[in-house]
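Before relying on records like the one below, remember that each one covers exactly one chain. Contacts with other chains, cofactors or solvent are not represented anywhere in the record.
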Amino acid sequence: MRDSNEGMPEIVDALEQDSKFVCIIRVKFGDTSKQFQFGISLDGYRALKKILQLRPFDAMPGVNQKYYFARSYSQVPGSSDCKAVIRVEQNRDGRQLEVRVPRDLLSNLLWFAEIRDPAEAAHLIEIK
């Protein structure tokens, strides 16, 4: 039986816009989902770009992968960075990998994992 990505925010993209860095994340609220954009640090941008390049499955042309924050993390000893568990899905397959991320990015991912009402993110830019 396949594991579930339920309750995990999906990391959609990391972009540079007007010399600033942003993350686009999709959060599910019941039967609907919404995408939000929020600012990130350069280190957060670099970490997300590495996450979005993870390829734990056989590379097949035209097959997309999805990336989720699995709501699990640990501290990196001797550093302010953390290791976040990222779930990568391709079709029906899923794998979880630990990825080093800065604390500010982890804090944002944790916040998105906890929100239950889109009104909690009303102050953010919603991507339609």
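The chain has two helices and seven strands.
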